[in-house]
Amino acid sequence: MAISAGIHVSPEFPATLQRIDALGPELDANAPAAEELGRLPEDTARALLDAGLIRAELPGNLGGHEFSPRQLIETVERLSRYDATAGWTVMALQLMTASTAAYLGPVAAADLFPDVPNGDHALLAGHGTRPGRAVPVEGGFLVSGEWQFASGMAHATHIHSAIQVEGSGELRILAMPKSRVELVENWDVLGLRATYSIDYRCTDVFVPETHTYVGTTTNPPNGGAMYRIGLVNMAAIGHTGWALGVGRRLLDEMRNVAAARTGSRNAPVDTAHFHAEYATAEARLRSARAWVREVWEGVEATLDAGGSLSAEQDTLIRLALNHTTWTVQDVGQMVHRWAGSAAIRRGPIDRYLRDLATGTQHITSGPVVLQNCGKWLSGALPGARWEFLDLIP
């Protein structure tokens, strides 16, 4: 597919959702074992790759399906309803792999993405905060650093990391083979255990300049209009879909618990209080989802017309993610109040509550981002612009 000036709405979307639904029961059944393993089993990871879930976000001119933002949100949402850790892992691999494919030039694209339709391409994992040091040398950089939270690293072939160029202070993103870094086996947490979100480090590793790009770029050499939203807004797509999927699954599980216990002696789920709280949670989740679609519909329309996102649109993308994440956290607290022993014994509610508690701590949904959204929307910084998660006057 040639590079398109507008938003590409992929015809592969319905079939991809069907493939997720076909895999869903197996993902759900294998989730406890994946937790014990600390990562997705290889056959599970291969099934997700074969279902086209990474290709979904890759640029069309490189052989990807190049889903639109709203298609990607719904894809991650659907997957996360079956298994939150599978949803998080795929979301991370999608983001790191697709942004690398979109923003690197032809030399790196030929190296890392030689035959996407037949599955011959790099898979990237890594992290963009706390950048490493990049010392300029002929042809590239000597890179050193320590990075955290490399979700999906068990399945990656290459590393995605932020680096800061010594002297200029320029922030760049690199792609290099996973074999060039030392993996730190330190992912010991209560939630999202199967995402293998470990730390990693390296010292004085040469990375060609061709395999780096400016971290704030919104001018992709590959792909269509979607990639003009920039790296942070691409991250918001996956995180938003993940939160929506987790919220939906928790409410579905609570409904199952209520159906099993209704009519029993002194059942709390037979009270008007429970019914009112469940209805309120449904309304809040559905309202958050509707607002997400409204925000991204506006973003897609702007990009489709050839425009650039306004500061308000950048703000609303971040705010919709924050609002959705914490709305789902409130939904989880409602489920925890009413699920009784199902919330503490091993099972989907217990697992999803732990995954949610971990997922809410991601920096993109943190309080500082919310405060910055408020600064812009309230008019406190009317001329400000967003740079990653910071609001710059």
TrEMBL record:
Q: Please give the Gene3D superfamilies that the UniProt record associates with this protein.
A: Acyl-CoA dehydrogenase/oxidase, N-terminal domain (1.10.540.10), Butyryl-CoA Dehydrogenase, subunit A, domain 2 (2.40.110.10), Butyryl-CoA Dehydrogenase, subunit A, domain 3 (1.20.140.10)
Occurrences of domain Acyl-CoA dehydrogenase C-terminal (ranges): 238-363
Q: Which SUPFAM superfamilies match?
A: Acyl-CoA dehydrogenase C-terminal domain-like, Acyl-CoA dehydrogenase NM domain-like
**Which InterPro entries does the record associate with it?**
Acyl-CoA_DH_C, Acyl-CoA_Oxase/DH_mid-dom_sf, AcylCo_DH-like_C, AcylCoA_DH/ox_N_sf, AcylCoA_DH/oxidase_NM_dom_sf
Task: Write out the entry's keywords from A to Z.
Answer: Oxidoreductase
Keyword Oxidoreductase applies: yes
Which residue ranges does UniProt annotate as crossing the membrane?
A: none
PANTHER family in the record, alphabetically?
ACYL-COA DEHYDROGENASE (PTHR43884), ISOVALERYL-COA DEHYDROGENASE, MITOCHONDRIAL-RELATED (PTHR43884:SF12)
Protein name as it appears in the record: Acyl-CoA dehydrogenase family protein
Originating species: Streptomyces albiaxialis
